Amino acid sequence: MTSLVRKYVARTRAFARDLARRDDGATAVEFAFVIGPFLFMLFAVLELAIVFTVSALLENATVDTSRRIRTGELQTAGGATKTTFRNDICAHMPLLETQCRERLQIDVRTYQQWADAQPVDPIQNGKLDDKALMFDAGKAGSIVLVRAYYKWPLLTPFMNQALSRLDGGVAVIQATVTFRNEPY
Fold it and tell me: Which residues contact 180 (CB under 8 A, 6 or more apart)?
């Protein structure tokens, strides 16, 4: 019996050594370890690129539309309301125009001196307080601060932790423009 056990142990050891030397499935195992983190990083980079694109679109649209306030065109044309100003910004962002009206919030304030232009952050405890936002385009010579807040839902969990400022994994992309109104 002992010789049978010895043969069995010897064969088991030989099989284990042979199995340890084999590398038939090594590539598949390595791929399985690498594919998850690779896809996660790929989607995170793509989402970050989209967030930067939206940020650039919002910044350009805010600057272009704010020029209507700076030159007095919006104030003298009549109908200078928060809604018309927001719709003008959305019109400058054609890629996002369909969802822009419900996701975009604006805050336009006037000040007497540059040092006074220190508004309160309307984002508190994961919520954007619409009541803290106002619209005052001012008159000729007024110092105007225009802030646009665009709510952008995030998909990647890593980006949710890094960028979200609102509850529910929503990032707030902000554009700010400050200027003195021209005489008109």
Answer: 70, 141, 142, 143, 144
Its pTM stands at 0.79
Taking Cα atoms as reference points, which of 34, 94, 13, 83 lies closest to residue 60? 94
**Of 146, 168, 19, nearest to 74 (Cα)?**
146
The span from the CA of 158 to the CA of 155, in Å, is 9
Q: How confident is the model at residue 150 (pLDDT cuts 50, 70, 90)?
A: very high
User: CA 175 to CA 157: how far, in whole Å?
Assistant: 24
Cα distances (Å, whole numbers) of residue 74 to 32, 67, 103, 177: 59, 9, 23, 16
Please give the structure tokens belonging to residue 127.
């919520």
Q: What are the tokens at 120?
A: 């309160």
Nearest 5°: the CA angle 76, 79, 128 is 115
pLDDT tens for each residue of 40-75: 889 989 999 999 999 999 999 999 999 999 999 988
